[in-house]
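Dear colleagues,

As part of the handover before I leave the project, I'm documenting each prediction I ran so the next person doesn't have to rerun anything. This entry is a single chain, and its sequence is reproduced below.
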Amino acid sequence: MTVLRSASRQALDALLEQENALYEAKGRKAVSAGDLAGFAEQLYAIADLMVAQPRLRRTLGDPATAPEARAGLLENLLNGKVADEVLELAKYAVSQRWSTPWDLTDSIEGAGDDALFAAAAKDKSLEQVEDELFRLERILEANGEAVGLLDEQTVEADRRNALLDSLVAKKVSATTLALLHHAVASQRKRSIVLAIDDLLEKTAARQNRSVARVVSASPLTDAQEKRLAKALSAMYGRPISVRSALDPDIRGGLVVRVGDEVIDGSIARRFSTARSALAG
């Protein structure tokens, strides 16, 4: 995950407020899940245009240029080509002060992701999207060859997305598939695994909690997951939900990851530690 400098952090916080007002229809007419999916496509297209046009990207992200001039330039380019709501949001983004033009570009791309998450929230399928992303993350972690092919930038995005479809077609929701298709095609998200990790963090943040990725040798019962979630929430001082997956190779125990922190309590890890101690 990119670490933003102060100016970009403040600009992103302001943009997120505008997104919430738009996506959650605060003080305006309601937008549907279908509207939001369309907004996402258009925001992605704006970000792609900025990636492809270095001069445009630098101009729109230049803090020395008046905010009104930057917003006006974008309006001249996009007026009538995107939804009024998308143009309004993009103009607001370019009028902010960003540390680098790339931070601006990434923020607009991220607004597209957020639009899809808002669509899932309207459909009450956000937890389903989170679960589907987690399952795919586990599949890819066990399939390095597929990861390499999905990340190969010299291969056309359509071909890489065809491979993705072969892994997940008809197994995930339309929202999840849209998020994944963009993650594969984006020139800014060069690692599908890291992209999924970022998306999972966003789904958790939208639900005001964090996610613990738990790997066990045998399935956890609902009661065990609830006890683990309660214990982790107490440990970290914030609500945490559990997403579990199976891996017989750990033999027993649990491997828990919360953000960048990994708690490896697996039997396989204990054996490895014991062997190292004996060898020493």
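The beta strands are 210-216, 240-246, 254-258, 261-264. The two ends are 38 Å apart (CA to CA).

All the best with the project,
I.
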